[in-house]
Amino acid sequence: MLDDKKDEIFLSRWINGELSEEELREFKSHPEYEYYMKIMAGADALDLKGYDVEKELTIIKSKRGNNTIKKSSSVIKLWPYFAVAASVAIILGLFLFGPNESFTTNYGEQLAVTLPDGSEMILNAKSNASFDKDSWEENRTVSLEGEAYFKVKKGSKFTVTTKNGEVSVLGTEFNVQSYTSFFEVACYEGKVSVTNDQQRKVLTAGNAYRNLKNIAPESWTFVAQTPSWINSTSTFRSVPIKYVFKEIEEQYNIKVDTSNINTGVIYTGTFPNDNIEVALKTVFSTLGMDYSLSQDGKTVVLEK
Amino acid sequence: MSDNKNSTCNEQAFDQFFKSQSKLLRNYIYYKFGDLEQAEDIVQDTFIKLWNNCSKVPLDKAKSYIYTIATNLGISITRHQKVRFKYQDYITQRKSDVTNESPEFIALEKEYMEKLKNAIADLPERQREVFLLSRIDKKTYKEIAEMSNVSVKAIEKLMHKALLAMRKKIGNI
Fold first, then answer.
1. Containing structural domain, residue A273
2. Which residue of A90, A107, B66, B150 pairs with B154 in a disulfide if CB–CB is 3.0 to 4.6 A?
3. CB distance B170–A189 less than 8 Å?
4. Number of helical (H) and strand (E) elements in chain A, helices listed first
5. Which of A8, A60, A111 sits opposite B72 (nearest CB)?
6. Domain ranges in chain B?
7. Which residue in chain A has the smallest CA separation from B131?
8. How far is CA A204 from CA A108, A113, A172, A201, B142, in A?
9. How many separate domains does chain A show?
């Protein structure tokens, strides 16, 4: 529709009035111009239903009800309150100064966690991450089992430790997948360093690294801006199918019975994380495998 | 702690924070998950949660806190039933602007506006979010980038893509 030579933010620049005079003149004489003008004129005439801030605030105040401070003027015996206060302090202390904050996701779940410095961590299904809140300022370290996407605020060194190696950065966006005998790191912004027993590797934005058991470590480049699972799609690039099956199991809480097939086959493709029928069909039909679901819907049996 | 003017537990500070943030949060959640009434419920629950945790969330962290909580609530509600973006009764046409700002617009038929809203509803979540924050809430690319913690460039790309997708969907009318 628009010439291919137009850059990938051309229309954004146009809306913002950032085109050069020449670019603008050229665009105006383009047959597509009037259609985009129409879209913008239409869009700018749209309005959203109003929002009554005062009313909403009143509702919230009535709902949060009992949490507002109750003032009492009667004389109070202090001792029992000291006792209660002391035990509350002890219990709170246990929570606040406990060794670690820990987050776990179950089958098919995702969880966004804001870390103490405002960095973000999004956990994919069947994963666990923990960190020490109290020493966070000195030591930004998260231990991870499973898969998570990180958006790290600039600051001191930020480290993700897994049993397969360490990933450390200063401020960036990256995805880590660490399972038994599977380790993959993809960097989406900035720069990360990956260290394991064998080597140390630096990844820049758009680069990924993988280390599988029995397969030589490999690196590649990609163009996506966030991992596809954030938008409920699992993506694989030349991965032995046993890892693909593992992801299906984690997303849908089912078992895949592979006793009849060769699990060394390599798979490249995607499947949705919110529609089991489509997911099974996509993966198994492209692999040329027949499958059937057990009666309780919990096990998928494969036939070559 | 609750006497401190900069504490989230301070009633006045909380009210002011609510007044400055709640509408945009509601719109953001609506664009993301597609249901305005549901978005308003999520905003209520989010701020109640903020109040209950006010001693743990300092005022300067409260903004990212409410966005995270509200997004998580939205994800957990919509996980099992993906709703299509609802715009009937929610998105209307500003009458005055029609005549003042864009005379060409008067000529656009009602049908075109329906097609346009439909095209917006069909956009992928992120593109729709960016497009509507920019057009309805009049947020700059920089402000939108800060809300979702990505680069301005990423927002510009999404905006460009959104327009291409809408243009394709609407066709030559």
1. 232-303
2. B150
3. no
4. 7, 19
5. A111
6. 11-78, 95-170
7. A43
8. 30, 24, 10, 10, 24
9. 2
DSSP state of A299: E
Three-class secondary structure of residue A128 per DSSP: strand
Total CB pairs under 8 A between chain A and B? 150
Token output for B120: 């917006």
Closest listed residue to residue A175, CA positions, set A228, A116, A213: A228
Q: What is the pLDDT of residue A83?
A: 58
For residue B66, give every residue at least 6 positions away whose Cβ sits within 8 Å of its Cβ, in sequence order, or none: B21, B25, B46, B47, B50
Give pLDDT tens digits for A49-72.
Answer: 889 999 999 888 888 765 444 333
CATH code, A263: 3.55.50.30
In contact, A166 and A189? CB cutoff 8 Å: no
Q: What is the pLDDT of residues A140-170, one digit of tens each?
A: 889 999 999 988 888 778 899 888 888 888 7
* Residue A86's pLDDT band (cuts 50, 70, 90): low
The CA-atom distances, in angstroms, between A52 and each of A25, A49, A59, B22 are 44, 10, 11, 10
Tell me which chain B residues have a C-beta less than 8 angstroms from the C-beta of A8: 157, 160-161
Closest residue, chain B, to A56 (C-alpha): B44
Same domain for A245 and A258: yes
**In this predicted model, which residue has the larger pLDDT, B93 or B2?**
B93
Read off the pLDDT of residues B86-109 as tens digits, 9 standing for 90 and up: 888 788 876 544 444 455 555 556
Kindly state whether residue A40 falls inside one of the protein's structural domains. no
Q: Give chain B positions within 8 Å (CB) of A120.
A: 68, 149
With bands split at pLDDT 50, 70 and 90, how would you rate the model's confidence at A4? low
Fold for the domain defined by B95-170: Arc Repressor Mutant, subunit A (1.10.10)
Give the mean pLDDT of B15-19: 93
Which chain B residues are Cβ-neighbours of A15 within 8 angstroms?
134, 159, 163
Q: Determine what percent of chain A is predicted with pLDDT higher than 70.
A: 86
Put simply, the answer to whether B48 touches A16 (Cβ < 8 Å) is no
Contacting residues of A for B122, CB less than 8 Å apart = none
Interface pTM (ipTM) of the complex? 0.85
Nearest by CB: A64 against B51, B120, B166? B51
